[in-house]
Design a protein that fits this description.
8-stranded parallel beta barrel, 5-stranded antiparallel beta sheet, 560 residues, binds 1-deoxynojirimycin
Protein backbone atom coordinates (compact mmCIF):
# COMPACT_ATOMS: atom_id res chain seq x y z
CA UNK A 1 0.00 0.00 0.00
CA UNK A 2 1.44 3.35 -1.00
CA UNK A 3 0.60 6.87 0.11
CA UNK A 4 -0.52 7.65 -3.46
CA UNK A 5 -3.41 5.19 -2.96
CA UNK A 6 -4.96 7.83 -0.71
CA UNK A 7 -5.36 10.14 -3.68
CA UNK A 8 -6.79 7.45 -5.97
CA UNK A 9 -9.38 6.55 -3.35
CA UNK A 10 -9.71 10.15 -2.19
CA UNK A 11 -13.04 9.60 -0.45
CA UNK A 12 -11.47 7.31 2.16
CA UNK A 13 -9.61 10.19 3.78
CA UNK A 14 -11.79 13.14 2.77
CA UNK A 15 -13.30 15.71 5.11
CA UNK A 16 -16.84 16.35 3.88
CA UNK A 17 -18.73 19.54 4.71
CA UNK A 18 -22.48 19.67 4.14
CA UNK A 19 -24.10 23.03 3.53
CA UNK A 20 -27.23 24.52 2.11
CA UNK A 21 -26.45 27.38 -0.28
CA UNK A 22 -29.53 29.28 0.88
CA UNK A 23 -28.40 29.51 4.52
CA UNK A 24 -24.64 29.89 4.06
CA UNK A 25 -23.85 33.40 2.76
CA UNK A 26 -26.06 35.99 1.10
CA UNK A 27 -24.10 38.16 -1.35
CA UNK A 28 -26.91 40.11 -3.02
CA UNK A 29 -28.66 41.13 0.20
CA UNK A 30 -32.03 39.60 -0.58
CA UNK A 31 -32.03 37.59 2.64
CA UNK A 32 -31.23 34.27 1.00
CA UNK A 33 -27.79 32.70 0.63
CA UNK A 34 -26.48 32.32 -2.89
CA UNK A 35 -23.70 30.78 -4.98
CA UNK A 36 -21.88 34.11 -5.13
CA UNK A 37 -21.80 34.20 -1.31
CA UNK A 38 -20.60 30.61 -1.09
CA UNK A 39 -17.82 31.37 -3.57
CA UNK A 40 -16.71 34.20 -1.27
CA UNK A 41 -16.38 31.71 1.56
CA UNK A 42 -14.44 29.05 -0.30
CA UNK A 43 -11.16 30.22 1.19
CA UNK A 44 -12.58 29.91 4.69
CA UNK A 45 -13.55 26.31 3.98
CA UNK A 46 -10.23 25.42 2.47
CA UNK A 47 -8.40 27.00 5.42
CA UNK A 48 -10.50 24.86 7.73
CA UNK A 49 -9.21 21.85 5.82
CA UNK A 50 -12.41 20.70 4.12
CA UNK A 51 -11.70 18.58 1.04
CA UNK A 52 -15.21 17.93 -0.26
CA UNK A 53 -18.34 20.06 -0.22
CA UNK A 54 -21.73 18.39 -0.18
CA UNK A 55 -24.32 20.82 -1.47
CA UNK A 56 -27.87 20.18 -0.33
CA UNK A 57 -30.46 20.51 -3.14
CA UNK A 58 -30.20 23.83 -4.99
CA UNK A 59 -32.57 23.09 -7.88
CA UNK A 60 -35.86 24.83 -8.65
CA UNK A 61 -38.24 23.63 -5.98
CA UNK A 62 -41.66 24.09 -4.46
CA UNK A 63 -39.90 24.30 -1.09
CA UNK A 64 -42.31 22.10 0.81
CA UNK A 65 -39.34 20.03 1.95
CA UNK A 66 -36.55 22.60 1.92
CA UNK A 67 -35.44 21.80 -1.62
CA UNK A 68 -35.90 18.01 -1.44
CA UNK A 69 -38.93 18.53 -3.69
CA UNK A 70 -37.46 19.29 -7.07
CA UNK A 71 -39.31 20.71 -10.08
CA UNK A 72 -36.38 20.68 -12.54
CA UNK A 73 -33.40 18.32 -12.29
CA UNK A 74 -31.37 20.43 -14.72
CA UNK A 75 -31.80 23.84 -13.13
CA UNK A 76 -30.45 26.09 -10.41
CA UNK A 77 -33.00 27.81 -8.22
CA UNK A 78 -32.82 31.39 -9.54
CA UNK A 79 -32.94 32.74 -6.00
CA UNK A 80 -29.55 31.11 -5.40
CA UNK A 81 -27.86 32.05 -8.66
CA UNK A 82 -27.37 30.67 -12.12
CA UNK A 83 -25.86 27.59 -13.72
CA UNK A 84 -22.89 29.78 -14.59
CA UNK A 85 -22.35 30.64 -10.94
CA UNK A 86 -22.63 26.98 -10.03
CA UNK A 87 -19.84 26.14 -12.47
CA UNK A 88 -17.71 29.00 -11.14
CA UNK A 89 -18.19 27.66 -7.64
CA UNK A 90 -17.14 24.15 -8.63
CA UNK A 91 -14.10 25.49 -10.40
CA UNK A 92 -13.06 27.78 -7.55
CA UNK A 93 -13.49 24.96 -5.07
CA UNK A 94 -11.33 22.69 -7.18
CA UNK A 95 -8.61 25.34 -7.30
CA UNK A 96 -8.59 25.34 -3.49
CA UNK A 97 -8.33 21.57 -3.38
CA UNK A 98 -11.99 20.84 -2.75
CA UNK A 99 -14.29 18.52 -4.64
CA UNK A 100 -18.03 19.08 -4.80
CA UNK A 101 -20.78 16.49 -4.50
CA UNK A 102 -24.48 17.28 -4.76
CA UNK A 103 -27.68 15.72 -3.52
CA UNK A 104 -29.35 13.27 -5.87
CA UNK A 105 -33.04 13.24 -4.94
CA UNK A 106 -34.69 10.72 -7.23
CA UNK A 107 -36.99 8.72 -5.01
CA UNK A 108 -39.58 11.39 -5.76
CA UNK A 109 -40.15 14.67 -7.52
CA UNK A 110 -42.17 17.66 -6.45
CA UNK A 111 -45.86 17.37 -7.28
CA UNK A 112 -45.28 20.50 -9.40
CA UNK A 113 -42.65 18.79 -11.56
CA UNK A 114 -43.80 18.78 -15.21
CA UNK A 115 -43.75 14.97 -15.23
CA UNK A 116 -46.22 14.74 -12.37
CA UNK A 117 -48.41 17.51 -13.73
CA UNK A 118 -48.66 15.63 -17.01
CA UNK A 119 -49.23 12.33 -15.19
CA UNK A 120 -52.06 13.90 -13.24
CA UNK A 121 -53.71 15.49 -16.23
CA UNK A 122 -54.62 12.18 -17.85
CA UNK A 123 -54.26 8.46 -17.32
CA UNK A 124 -53.21 8.25 -20.95
CA UNK A 125 -50.22 10.55 -20.46
CA UNK A 126 -46.85 8.96 -21.29
CA UNK A 127 -45.76 10.30 -17.89
CA UNK A 128 -48.50 8.48 -15.99
CA UNK A 129 -46.21 5.49 -15.56
CA UNK A 130 -43.43 7.71 -14.16
CA UNK A 131 -45.25 7.43 -10.83
CA UNK A 132 -46.85 4.64 -8.81
CA UNK A 133 -50.67 4.56 -8.92
CA UNK A 134 -53.36 2.33 -7.53
CA UNK A 135 -57.04 2.26 -8.41
CA UNK A 136 -58.40 0.60 -5.26
CA UNK A 137 -58.56 2.16 -1.82
CA UNK A 138 -55.20 1.61 -0.07
CA UNK A 139 -54.97 -0.23 3.24
CA UNK A 140 -53.98 1.61 6.40
CA UNK A 141 -50.33 2.61 6.07
CA UNK A 142 -49.91 5.09 8.90
CA UNK A 143 -47.05 3.01 10.33
CA UNK A 144 -45.06 3.44 7.10
CA UNK A 145 -45.05 7.22 6.87
CA UNK A 146 -41.77 9.06 7.36
CA UNK A 147 -43.20 12.31 8.71
CA UNK A 148 -45.98 11.28 11.11
CA UNK A 149 -46.65 14.88 12.17
CA UNK A 150 -48.03 15.70 8.72
CA UNK A 151 -48.95 12.45 7.01
CA UNK A 152 -51.05 9.45 7.97
CA UNK A 153 -50.79 7.42 4.77
CA UNK A 154 -48.21 6.79 2.05
CA UNK A 155 -51.00 7.02 -0.55
CA UNK A 156 -52.73 10.23 -1.65
CA UNK A 157 -55.97 10.42 -3.58
CA UNK A 158 -55.88 12.37 -6.83
CA UNK A 159 -59.32 13.90 -7.49
CA UNK A 160 -58.84 14.41 -11.19
CA UNK A 161 -57.91 10.86 -12.19
CA UNK A 162 -59.55 9.18 -9.21
CA UNK A 163 -56.57 7.05 -8.24
CA UNK A 164 -54.05 7.09 -5.42
CA UNK A 165 -50.34 7.78 -5.85
CA UNK A 166 -47.47 6.60 -3.66
CA UNK A 167 -45.44 9.05 -1.57
CA UNK A 168 -42.93 7.81 0.99
CA UNK A 169 -42.39 11.36 2.24
CA UNK A 170 -44.81 14.32 2.08
CA UNK A 171 -47.86 14.04 -0.21
CA UNK A 172 -46.28 16.83 -2.26
CA UNK A 173 -43.45 14.41 -3.14
CA UNK A 174 -44.87 11.64 -5.38
CA UNK A 175 -42.55 8.63 -5.66
CA UNK A 176 -41.05 7.93 -9.05
CA UNK A 177 -41.72 4.50 -10.50
CA UNK A 178 -38.24 3.01 -10.67
CA UNK A 179 -39.51 -0.06 -12.54
CA UNK A 180 -40.10 2.17 -15.55
CA UNK A 181 -36.97 2.09 -17.74
CA UNK A 182 -37.69 5.63 -18.93
CA UNK A 183 -37.49 6.88 -15.35
CA UNK A 184 -34.18 5.11 -14.87
CA UNK A 185 -32.86 6.67 -18.06
CA UNK A 186 -33.95 10.13 -16.92
CA UNK A 187 -32.10 9.67 -13.62
CA UNK A 188 -28.89 8.71 -15.36
CA UNK A 189 -29.23 11.57 -17.81
CA UNK A 190 -29.57 14.13 -15.01
CA UNK A 191 -26.59 12.63 -13.21
CA UNK A 192 -24.54 12.83 -16.39
CA UNK A 193 -25.46 16.49 -16.77
CA UNK A 194 -24.08 17.52 -13.37
CA UNK A 195 -21.05 15.26 -13.66
CA UNK A 196 -20.22 17.04 -16.90
CA UNK A 197 -20.22 20.31 -14.96
CA UNK A 198 -17.38 19.09 -12.80
CA UNK A 199 -18.84 17.52 -9.69
CA UNK A 200 -17.30 14.45 -8.06
CA UNK A 201 -20.43 12.51 -7.29
CA UNK A 202 -23.63 12.48 -5.32
CA UNK A 203 -25.06 12.15 -1.87
CA UNK A 204 -27.92 9.82 -2.75
CA UNK A 205 -31.13 10.58 -0.90
CA UNK A 206 -33.19 7.78 0.66
CA UNK A 207 -31.52 4.91 -1.25
CA UNK A 208 -33.61 1.98 0.04
CA UNK A 209 -36.80 3.81 -1.01
CA UNK A 210 -35.33 4.62 -4.44
CA UNK A 211 -34.97 0.95 -5.35
CA UNK A 212 -37.95 -0.49 -3.47
CA UNK A 213 -41.02 -1.52 -5.41
CA UNK A 214 -43.97 -1.03 -3.08
CA UNK A 215 -47.26 -0.71 -4.89
CA UNK A 216 -46.25 -1.96 -8.32
CA UNK A 217 -47.80 -4.97 -10.06
CA UNK A 218 -46.11 -8.10 -11.35
CA UNK A 219 -45.77 -6.79 -14.87
CA UNK A 220 -43.98 -3.72 -13.58
CA UNK A 221 -41.81 -5.81 -11.28
CA UNK A 222 -40.70 -7.88 -14.24
CA UNK A 223 -39.15 -4.73 -15.67
CA UNK A 224 -36.94 -4.34 -12.61
CA UNK A 225 -35.81 -7.76 -11.47
CA UNK A 226 -32.51 -6.69 -9.94
CA UNK A 227 -32.76 -3.46 -7.90
CA UNK A 228 -29.17 -3.73 -6.71
CA UNK A 229 -28.12 -4.21 -10.32
CA UNK A 230 -29.42 -0.69 -10.88
CA UNK A 231 -27.21 0.66 -8.09
CA UNK A 232 -24.29 -1.16 -9.70
CA UNK A 233 -25.21 0.47 -12.97
CA UNK A 234 -25.25 3.95 -11.39
CA UNK A 235 -21.89 3.37 -9.74
CA UNK A 236 -20.20 2.20 -12.90
CA UNK A 237 -21.81 5.05 -14.83
CA UNK A 238 -20.32 7.60 -12.39
CA UNK A 239 -16.99 5.78 -12.62
CA UNK A 240 -17.02 5.81 -16.41
CA UNK A 241 -17.94 9.48 -16.63
CA UNK A 242 -15.50 10.75 -14.00
CA UNK A 243 -12.90 8.14 -13.16
CA UNK A 244 -13.14 8.76 -9.43
CA UNK A 245 -16.65 10.01 -8.67
CA UNK A 246 -18.56 8.63 -5.70
CA UNK A 247 -22.03 7.75 -4.48
CA UNK A 248 -22.50 8.55 -0.80
CA UNK A 249 -25.73 6.86 0.18
CA UNK A 250 -28.29 7.62 2.84
CA UNK A 251 -29.21 4.12 4.04
CA UNK A 252 -30.51 4.20 7.60
CA UNK A 253 -30.65 0.43 8.11
CA UNK A 254 -28.98 -2.04 10.47
CA UNK A 255 -25.30 -2.60 9.65
CA UNK A 256 -25.93 -6.08 8.27
CA UNK A 257 -28.46 -4.74 5.77
CA UNK A 258 -26.09 -1.98 4.70
CA UNK A 259 -23.65 -4.58 3.38
CA UNK A 260 -25.84 -5.27 0.37
CA UNK A 261 -25.91 -1.56 -0.51
CA UNK A 262 -22.12 -1.47 -0.69
CA UNK A 263 -22.39 -4.34 -3.16
CA UNK A 264 -21.17 -6.96 -0.69
CA UNK A 265 -17.64 -8.22 -1.19
CA UNK A 266 -17.40 -6.65 -4.63
CA UNK A 267 -18.04 -3.18 -3.26
CA UNK A 268 -19.50 -2.10 -6.60
CA UNK A 269 -22.66 -0.26 -5.48
CA UNK A 270 -22.59 2.72 -3.09
CA UNK A 271 -19.06 3.97 -2.53
CA UNK A 272 -19.90 5.25 0.92
CA UNK A 273 -22.72 5.04 3.44
CA UNK A 274 -23.44 7.06 6.54
CA UNK A 275 -22.94 5.08 9.72
CA UNK A 276 -26.32 5.76 11.33
CA UNK A 277 -25.91 2.86 13.74
CA UNK A 278 -22.54 4.08 14.99
CA UNK A 279 -23.96 7.59 15.41
CA UNK A 280 -26.97 6.41 17.42
CA UNK A 281 -24.85 4.28 19.70
CA UNK A 282 -22.44 7.15 20.16
CA UNK A 283 -25.29 9.19 21.64
CA UNK A 284 -26.34 6.30 23.84
CA UNK A 285 -22.77 6.03 25.09
CA UNK A 286 -22.60 9.77 25.74
CA UNK A 287 -25.88 9.71 27.62
CA UNK A 288 -24.73 6.81 29.80
CA UNK A 289 -21.11 7.94 30.02
CA UNK A 290 -20.39 4.36 29.11
CA UNK A 291 -18.39 3.56 25.98
CA UNK A 292 -19.69 0.03 25.61
CA UNK A 293 -22.69 0.61 23.31
CA UNK A 294 -20.44 2.44 20.86
CA UNK A 295 -17.66 -0.14 21.20
CA UNK A 296 -20.17 -2.92 20.52
CA UNK A 297 -21.55 -1.17 17.44
CA UNK A 298 -18.05 -0.57 16.09
CA UNK A 299 -16.98 -4.16 16.71
CA UNK A 300 -20.05 -5.43 14.89
CA UNK A 301 -19.78 -3.03 11.99
CA UNK A 302 -19.29 -5.31 9.02
CA UNK A 303 -16.04 -5.41 7.08
CA UNK A 304 -16.34 -3.68 3.71
CA UNK A 305 -14.32 -3.81 0.52
CA UNK A 306 -11.10 -1.78 0.32
CA UNK A 307 -12.77 0.75 -1.94
CA UNK A 308 -15.87 1.25 0.18
CA UNK A 309 -16.10 3.58 3.13
CA UNK A 310 -18.21 4.54 6.15
CA UNK A 311 -19.16 8.18 6.59
CA UNK A 312 -19.07 9.16 10.25
CA UNK A 313 -21.08 12.03 11.69
CA UNK A 314 -22.59 13.34 14.89
CA UNK A 315 -25.13 15.66 13.26
CA UNK A 316 -26.85 15.96 9.92
CA UNK A 317 -29.47 18.34 8.58
CA UNK A 318 -32.44 16.16 9.59
CA UNK A 319 -33.77 15.19 12.99
CA UNK A 320 -31.02 13.43 14.93
CA UNK A 321 -32.65 10.08 14.45
CA UNK A 322 -32.46 7.50 17.21
CA UNK A 323 -34.85 5.12 15.50
CA UNK A 324 -32.57 2.10 15.69
CA UNK A 325 -32.21 2.22 19.47
CA UNK A 326 -34.69 0.35 21.64
CA UNK A 327 -37.53 2.41 23.17
CA UNK A 328 -35.76 2.37 26.54
CA UNK A 329 -32.41 3.40 25.07
CA UNK A 330 -34.01 6.21 23.08
CA UNK A 331 -35.77 7.40 26.23
CA UNK A 332 -32.38 7.58 27.97
CA UNK A 333 -30.93 9.73 25.19
CA UNK A 334 -34.03 11.93 25.16
CA UNK A 335 -33.78 12.38 28.94
CA UNK A 336 -30.10 13.31 28.73
CA UNK A 337 -30.07 15.53 25.67
CA UNK A 338 -33.60 16.60 24.78
CA UNK A 339 -36.01 16.25 27.68
CA UNK A 340 -38.53 18.88 26.53
CA UNK A 341 -41.13 17.76 23.98
CA UNK A 342 -40.25 20.69 21.68
CA UNK A 343 -36.68 19.33 21.43
CA UNK A 344 -37.97 16.01 20.07
CA UNK A 345 -39.36 15.12 16.69
CA UNK A 346 -41.47 12.30 15.24
CA UNK A 347 -41.03 10.37 18.50
CA UNK A 348 -37.68 9.14 17.21
CA UNK A 349 -35.27 12.06 17.03
CA UNK A 350 -33.96 15.30 18.42
CA UNK A 351 -33.86 18.69 16.76
CA UNK A 352 -30.89 20.08 18.64
CA UNK A 353 -27.27 20.43 17.68
CA UNK A 354 -24.49 18.83 19.74
CA UNK A 355 -23.24 21.89 21.69
CA UNK A 356 -26.65 22.70 23.15
CA UNK A 357 -27.21 19.05 24.03
CA UNK A 358 -23.96 19.16 25.97
CA UNK A 359 -24.90 22.45 27.67
CA UNK A 360 -22.07 24.18 25.86
CA UNK A 361 -19.43 22.30 27.89
CA UNK A 362 -16.28 22.93 25.80
CA UNK A 363 -14.40 19.90 27.17
CA UNK A 364 -17.20 17.54 26.28
CA UNK A 365 -17.86 19.07 22.87
CA UNK A 366 -14.20 18.75 21.93
CA UNK A 367 -14.04 15.21 23.25
CA UNK A 368 -16.97 14.20 21.02
CA UNK A 369 -15.45 15.70 17.87
CA UNK A 370 -12.09 14.21 18.71
CA UNK A 371 -13.81 10.85 19.06
CA UNK A 372 -15.68 11.22 15.79
CA UNK A 373 -12.53 12.11 13.82
CA UNK A 374 -10.62 9.23 15.41
CA UNK A 375 -13.09 6.56 14.27
CA UNK A 376 -12.29 4.71 11.08
CA UNK A 377 -14.22 6.32 8.28
CA UNK A 378 -14.64 9.64 6.55
CA UNK A 379 -15.95 12.48 8.75
CA UNK A 380 -18.90 14.55 7.58
CA UNK A 381 -19.61 17.92 9.18
CA UNK A 382 -22.79 19.96 8.97
CA UNK A 383 -22.03 23.66 8.40
CA UNK A 384 -21.58 25.56 11.65
CA UNK A 385 -20.42 22.54 13.64
CA UNK A 386 -16.87 23.85 13.43
CA UNK A 387 -17.81 26.91 15.50
CA UNK A 388 -20.30 25.20 17.81
CA UNK A 389 -23.56 26.60 16.47
CA UNK A 390 -26.79 25.76 18.27
CA UNK A 391 -30.35 25.54 16.98
CA UNK A 392 -33.43 27.74 16.97
CA UNK A 393 -36.30 25.74 18.42
CA UNK A 394 -38.75 28.48 17.45
CA UNK A 395 -38.37 27.27 13.84
CA UNK A 396 -40.59 24.43 12.72
CA UNK A 397 -39.47 20.78 12.74
CA UNK A 398 -36.14 19.80 11.23
CA UNK A 399 -35.43 23.35 10.09
CA UNK A 400 -34.40 24.26 13.66
CA UNK A 401 -30.84 23.17 12.83
CA UNK A 402 -30.80 24.78 9.37
CA UNK A 403 -30.40 28.39 10.52
CA UNK A 404 -28.15 30.96 8.80
CA UNK A 405 -24.40 30.47 9.19
CA UNK A 406 -22.97 32.74 11.87
CA UNK A 407 -20.08 34.71 10.42
CA UNK A 408 -19.86 37.73 12.72
CA UNK A 409 -21.37 39.17 15.89
CA UNK A 410 -23.18 41.78 13.77
CA UNK A 411 -26.70 41.99 12.42
CA UNK A 412 -27.98 38.66 11.05
CA UNK A 413 -24.71 37.12 12.17
CA UNK A 414 -23.08 38.63 9.08
CA UNK A 415 -25.03 36.20 6.91
CA UNK A 416 -26.98 38.91 5.10
CA UNK A 417 -27.44 42.68 5.06
CA UNK A 418 -31.18 42.33 4.43
CA UNK A 419 -33.69 43.26 7.11
CA UNK A 420 -33.96 40.42 9.65
CA UNK A 421 -37.61 39.95 8.69
CA UNK A 422 -36.51 39.11 5.12
CA UNK A 423 -34.08 36.35 6.04
CA UNK A 424 -34.72 32.92 4.60
CA UNK A 425 -34.81 31.73 8.20
CA UNK A 426 -34.25 33.46 11.55
CA UNK A 427 -30.82 33.21 13.14
CA UNK A 428 -30.20 31.40 16.42
CA UNK A 429 -31.08 33.43 19.51
CA UNK A 430 -29.68 33.47 23.04
CA UNK A 431 -26.36 32.17 24.25
CA UNK A 432 -25.63 30.29 21.02
CA UNK A 433 -26.59 33.25 18.84
CA UNK A 434 -24.12 35.11 16.62
CA UNK A 435 -23.13 37.57 19.39
CA UNK A 436 -21.52 34.63 21.21
CA UNK A 437 -20.79 32.07 18.50
CA UNK A 438 -19.34 33.31 15.23
CA UNK A 439 -16.49 32.72 12.80
CA UNK A 440 -14.90 36.17 13.08
CA UNK A 441 -14.28 35.91 16.82
CA UNK A 442 -12.98 32.36 16.62
CA UNK A 443 -10.66 32.85 13.67
CA UNK A 444 -8.27 34.96 15.69
CA UNK A 445 -8.44 32.82 18.82
CA UNK A 446 -6.02 29.88 19.02
CA UNK A 447 -8.12 28.38 21.83
CA UNK A 448 -11.40 28.46 19.90
CA UNK A 449 -13.42 25.46 18.82
CA UNK A 450 -12.70 26.51 15.23
CA UNK A 451 -8.95 26.27 15.86
CA UNK A 452 -9.46 22.89 17.52
CA UNK A 453 -11.53 21.58 14.60
CA UNK A 454 -8.85 22.74 12.14
CA UNK A 455 -6.29 20.83 14.18
CA UNK A 456 -8.42 17.69 14.20
CA UNK A 457 -8.87 17.95 10.45
CA UNK A 458 -5.14 18.44 9.90
CA UNK A 459 -4.27 15.46 12.07
CA UNK A 460 -6.95 13.32 10.46
CA UNK A 461 -5.58 14.14 7.02
CA UNK A 462 -2.03 13.36 8.17
CA UNK A 463 -3.18 10.00 9.53
CA UNK A 464 -4.54 8.03 6.59
CA UNK A 465 -4.70 4.94 8.79
CA UNK A 466 -7.91 6.47 10.22
CA UNK A 467 -9.56 6.33 6.83
CA UNK A 468 -8.11 3.03 5.71
CA UNK A 469 -7.66 0.79 8.69
CA UNK A 470 -9.93 -1.65 10.39
CA UNK A 471 -10.58 -0.69 13.95
CA UNK A 472 -9.50 -2.58 17.05
CA UNK A 473 -11.15 -1.75 20.32
CA UNK A 474 -8.38 -2.14 22.90
CA UNK A 475 -9.01 -3.94 26.19
CA UNK A 476 -8.80 -1.69 29.23
CA UNK A 477 -10.66 -1.62 32.54
CA UNK A 478 -12.80 1.55 32.40
CA UNK A 479 -16.40 1.46 31.14
CA UNK A 480 -16.39 5.17 30.48
CA UNK A 481 -13.32 4.98 28.23
CA UNK A 482 -13.02 4.01 24.59
CA UNK A 483 -9.50 3.03 23.55
CA UNK A 484 -9.05 2.21 19.86
CA UNK A 485 -6.24 1.38 17.54
CA UNK A 486 -6.13 1.85 13.78
CA UNK A 487 -3.30 0.12 11.98
CA UNK A 488 -2.57 0.31 8.28
CA UNK A 489 0.74 -1.02 7.02
CA UNK A 490 3.33 0.34 9.42
CA UNK A 491 1.12 3.28 10.40
CA UNK A 492 -0.59 2.96 13.74
CA UNK A 493 -2.60 5.37 15.80
CA UNK A 494 -4.09 4.88 19.24
CA UNK A 495 -6.99 7.06 20.39
CA UNK A 496 -8.27 7.21 23.94
CA UNK A 497 -11.46 9.02 24.95
CA UNK A 498 -12.98 9.53 28.36
CA UNK A 499 -16.78 9.84 28.19
CA UNK A 500 -17.10 10.82 31.84
CA UNK A 501 -16.01 13.71 34.06
CA UNK A 502 -13.90 11.35 36.17
CA UNK A 503 -10.15 11.50 35.49
CA UNK A 504 -8.38 8.16 35.18
CA UNK A 505 -5.34 6.36 33.90
CA UNK A 506 -5.93 3.86 31.09
CA UNK A 507 -3.69 0.79 31.10
CA UNK A 508 -3.62 -1.21 27.88
CA UNK A 509 -1.27 -3.26 25.73
CA UNK A 510 -0.12 -2.70 22.18
CA UNK A 511 0.62 -5.86 20.22
CA UNK A 512 4.13 -6.29 18.93
CA UNK A 513 5.52 -3.23 20.67
CA UNK A 514 8.36 -2.74 23.12
CA UNK A 515 10.71 -0.02 24.30
CA UNK A 516 11.93 0.63 20.77
CA UNK A 517 8.56 2.32 20.10
CA UNK A 518 7.03 5.46 21.48
CA UNK A 519 3.64 7.18 21.40
CA UNK A 520 3.63 10.80 20.27
CA UNK A 521 0.70 13.01 21.29
CA UNK A 522 -0.85 14.50 18.16
CA UNK A 523 -3.27 16.96 19.75
CA UNK A 524 -1.27 18.53 22.57
CA UNK A 525 2.32 19.31 23.26
CA UNK A 526 2.99 16.62 25.86
CA UNK A 527 5.77 14.20 26.62
CA UNK A 528 5.55 10.94 24.66
CA UNK A 529 3.81 8.02 26.40
CA UNK A 530 6.41 5.38 27.28
CA UNK A 531 5.96 1.74 26.26
CA UNK A 532 7.47 -1.06 28.31
CA UNK A 533 9.19 -4.18 27.02
CA UNK A 534 5.84 -6.02 26.71
CA UNK A 535 3.98 -3.25 24.91
CA UNK A 536 2.19 -2.03 28.04
CA UNK A 537 1.22 1.60 28.36
CA UNK A 538 -0.56 3.82 30.89
CA UNK A 539 -2.38 6.79 29.43
CA UNK A 540 -3.49 9.51 31.86
CA UNK A 541 -6.80 11.16 30.94
CA UNK A 542 -8.58 14.13 32.48
CA UNK A 543 -12.36 14.15 32.83
CA UNK A 544 -13.74 14.18 29.25
CA UNK A 545 -10.11 13.88 28.17
CA UNK A 546 -9.06 12.76 24.69
CA UNK A 547 -5.72 11.79 23.21
CA UNK A 548 -4.49 10.76 19.80
CA UNK A 549 -1.20 8.92 20.03
CA UNK A 550 0.92 8.07 17.03
CA UNK A 551 2.79 4.83 17.49
CA UNK A 552 6.19 5.09 15.93
CA UNK A 553 9.57 3.40 16.23
CA UNK A 554 11.97 5.70 18.08
CA UNK A 555 14.02 5.97 14.92
CA UNK A 556 10.91 6.35 12.70
CA UNK A 557 10.88 8.90 9.88
CA UNK A 558 7.25 9.91 10.10
CA UNK A 559 6.53 13.50 11.12
CA UNK A 560 4.61 13.59 14.36
C1 LIG B 1 -33.79 12.55 3.37
C2 LIG B 1 -33.35 13.97 3.49
O1 LIG B 1 -32.17 14.02 4.28
C3 LIG B 1 -34.50 14.73 4.08
O2 LIG B 1 -34.12 16.03 4.44
C4 LIG B 1 -35.65 14.72 3.11
O3 LIG B 1 -36.78 15.32 3.70
C5 LIG B 1 -36.02 13.31 2.71
N1 LIG B 1 -34.90 12.46 2.43
C6 LIG B 1 -36.91 13.33 1.48
O4 LIG B 1 -36.16 13.75 0.38
Amino acid sequence: MRISDTSDLWWKTAVIYCLDVQTFMDWNDDGMGDFAGLAERIDYLSELGVTCLWLMPFHPTTDRDDGYDITDYYGVDPRLGSAGEFVELVRTARDRGMRVIIDLVVNHTSDRHPWFRAARRSKASPYRDFYVWRADRPPDSHKDVTFPDRESSIWEYDEKTEEWYLHRFYRTQPDLNITNPRVRDEIVKAMGFWLELGISGFRVDAVPFVIETTGVDQQELDRFRDPHGYLRHLRSFVGRRTGDGILLGEVNLPHQDQKAFFGGKDGDELTMQFDFIGMQNLYLSLAREDARPLARALRRRPAISAESQWATFVRNHDELTLDKLSDEERAEVFAAFGPQPEMQLYGRGLRRRLPTMLDGDPRRIRMVYSLMFSLPGTPVLLYGEEIGMGENLAIDGRLAVRTPMQWTAGRNGGFSRAAPSRLVRPVVEGSFGPEHVNVAAQRGDPDSLLAFMSLLIRRYRESPELGWADLRVLDQPHRHVLATECAWDDRRIVAVHNLSAVACTVPTTLDGCDTTYQLIDLLEDRDPVEIDGRGRIDVPLEGYGYRWLRLTPRDGRRLA
